[in-house]
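Title: Comparing notes on inverse folding

I've been comparing how different people in this forum approach sequence design from structure. To keep things fair, I'm posting one structure and asking everyone to reply with a full sequence. Here's the target:
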């Protein structure tokens, strides 16, 4: 079993409150979940900052290359929405 874990800092421009941030983030997370239904995604840090969000994404498979591919696709999809600017990324593969 191969587990891929990705942590991404997202920067939201044009938000003026936590309510704005959560509305954008909720929509983005739902779009990722509907497009990649085997991926787990959630906001994991920076909860009280209204211009920054940190999300965690995980995916499990039996092939390292497939895990890399799916997490790259998810990252590209998030970037292509134009809703957020990608910041620092941390990626880890665990072989179990």
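Reply #1:
Here's my take.
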């Amino acid at each position: 079993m191969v587990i891929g874990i990705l942590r991404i800092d997202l920067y939201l421009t044009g938000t003026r409150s936590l309510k704005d941030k959560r509305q954008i983030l909720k929509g983005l997370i739902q779009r990722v979940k509907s497009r990649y239904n085997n991926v787990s995604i959630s906001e994991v840090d920076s909860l009280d900052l209204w211009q920054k969000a940190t999300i965690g994404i995980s995916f499990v498979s039996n092939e390292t290359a497939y895990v890399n591919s799916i997490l790259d696709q998810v990252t590209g999809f998030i970037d292509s929405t134009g809703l957020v600017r990608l910041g620092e990324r941390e990626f880890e593969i665990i072989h179990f």
